[in-house]
Structure formats: C-alpha cells, structure tokens
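Please describe the entry underneath.
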Amino acid sequence: MNPYEASPEKIPATDRYVLEPLYGRYSPRPDDFVPNKCHINSTSPESLKYWASVLERCDVFIRIYENIDDEGRDVFALGSVIVKSTHLKEKLEGKKVHRDYSLADMNEVRATALARSVLTNIKIPEIYFAGKIEGRDVLIQERIPGVGLNVAWQYLSQAQKESFKLQARNLLHRLQEIQPPSTQTHRSYLVPDPDPVEHRGIQTLEMDIIFGADNRNPDLSFMHNDLSPSNIIVDNDRIVGLVDWEMAGCFGWDTAGIVHVQIRSPKKENFAALELSQELLDDIMFWNNLYD
C-alpha cells in the first residue's frame, strides 16, 4: 500500500481508517467545494449569510472528528475546506453547550500568518473565516492535500519514520527562530488568553507547565505546541503541511517539549497490562522524544 494514497476509493479494507475515508486524507477533485473568494475573511451581513450556508452543508456524513466534550467543536471535511463548529450539538435552554473559541481562533489566524513567514516550503492553511454564526464560534480553513502522518504511519518503514521525525524537528527549530518583542517577558499565546482551560479545553496541568511560577526558563521562542502526527500532512516522504495552530505561542523549546511529553504523548504505563511486544511499544512511543 502506498502510504500517501489519498483517494478514498483506493483505501484497502484492512486500513485502520477505512471507515473514516475523509479523515486524514485529501486528494483534490474538480467538483470539490471551493469557497467564494468574495467572502473570504469577511463578516459583512452578506458574507455571514454565505458562511452560514456553508455550515448547513456540514453534516454527520462529512464529519471527520466528533468531539465527545459537550462544549467542544466537531470537525468536518467539505471539499477543499475544513470546518470546525458545534452546530450539530443541541443548544439547550439555560445550559451552555459550546465553548468560547474566539481567542483560540484569533490566535490561530495570527499563528498561521507568523509561521508562514519562516516555513516557506510547506503549506500552512489559509484561514477563510473565523467568527460567530448564530452565536457559535466557527473556523473555516484551507484543507491541505496529502495524508496525515498518523494515517500514513501504518505503512511506513522505520527509516521513513526516522526521516519524518528529523523533518519535524527541523521545522520546530525554524519556528524557534521567531522571537517575541523585546518588551515581552513572559510566556503567552499570540493572542493572550486569561483562561485557556475554559476557552481551549486544555488540562490544568498544561496551564501549570506553561504559565506556572516554577517555570523560569527564559526561552520565549515561538512554538506550534501541538505537533502530533495527526497535525502533520505528508506526501512522497516529505512533510508538506502543518495544521491546527490554536495552541501556538511564545513558550520556548523546553516548555513545549515538556507539554509534548506530559500532555500530548502516550504513557508507557498505560499499556503495561496489554503485554505488547517491545517492538510495538517502541513504535507507539516513537514520537515522544521529538524535542530531544
């Protein structure tokens, strides 16, 4: 099997994601939905009506991620765009059922623009719309052709996996070249967030790692802060895109590395009862040392 096969009809029955053909794979087609350029990054009444019509096309059949958190957003793949929204979640009177993502979305807009300035040889998704539709925060962005590294992983050789880790590490070092203004003296998202636990749904532990008083590391370089294989788009043995920048900020290499190990990565002890082979266990833990 070609690890970079992105056409749903060519996915074998044995593929781990065969029941989710739109997840982690995208090969553009002539009849794909493409957003009207007149409405990109516009919140005029006419544009809001247009984006609401786009949202209406996002149903369970094109949902590629269902967020089990009652307040979390689902993700949809509609032709050439990715849509993040809670519009399929029931809105109950007197009960909050959707999170305020406005700060995270503004952060993603700024982070993608900043990353694009140094990562010139890969795709960073264009943001087409970030705003509220019927009171809910909606983000619509470019869908990058290729295959998610997590999806391609099942078909990769050890040498290919090593190569992708090296490529990812090199991209992180290029992001590290971006430094905050000299007046900035503390870690922060690009758009400051007074309560990321509430707005982003992060764990309290992650907030403590990044913003706790015990973290005195002076490095405030720019970091993606969520460079999991699912956020890396690959093709022909190359990383061709990085997505999901809402967690990015001026956190520094070591701090992002601690978050990566303690929050984003699998824990060996969680697999102790499964009696997995050492080879399989090593493969599961392979991405844990990305920041070493």
The longest strand covers residues 127-133. Residues 279 and 285 are 10 Å apart (CA to CA). Helices lie at 45-56, 102-116, 149-152, 158-176, 196-200, 204-211, 253-264, 278-284. The chain has a mean pLDDT of 95.
